[in-house]
Amino acid sequence: MKYQFAERVDLMKSSAIREILKVTQEPDMISFAGGLPAPELFPLAGIREAFQEALSSDPAVLQYSNTEGFLPLREYIVSKMQQDGINARAENVLITNGSQQALDLITKLFINPGDIVLVEKPSYLGALQVFRSYQAKFVDIATDYEGINVDAFELAIKEYHPKLIYLTPTFKNPTGVTLAADRRRAVAGLAAKYKVPLIEDDPYRELRYYGDPVPPIKSFDGSDWVIYMGSFSKIIAPGLRLGWVATEGELMDKLVLAKQGTDLHTGTLVQRGVYNYLVNHNIKAHIEAIRAEYGRRRDVMLQQMDEQFPKNFSWTKPDGGMFLWVTLPEGANSGSLLKQAIKEKVAYVPGAMFFPNGGGLNTLRLNFSNSTPVKIKAGIQRLARLLTE
Amino acid sequence: MKYQFAERVDLMKSSAIREILKVTQEPDMISFAGGLPAPELFPLAGIREAFQEALSSDPAVLQYSNTEGFLPLREYIVSKMQQDGINARAENVLITNGSQQALDLITKLFINPGDIVLVEKPSYLGALQVFRSYQAKFVDIATDYEGINVDAFELAIKEYHPKLIYLTPTFKNPTGVTLAADRRRAVAGLAAKYKVPLIEDDPYRELRYYGDPVPPIKSFDGSDWVIYMGSFSKIIAPGLRLGWVATEGELMDKLVLAKQGTDLHTGTLVQRGVYNYLVNHNIKAHIEAIRAEYGRRRDVMLQQMDEQFPKNFSWTKPDGGMFLWVTLPEGANSGSLLKQAIKEKVAYVPGAMFFPNGGGLNTLRLNFSNSTPVKIKAGIQRLARLLTE
Question: Domain of A20: which CATH number?
Answer without folding.
Answer: 3.90.1150.10
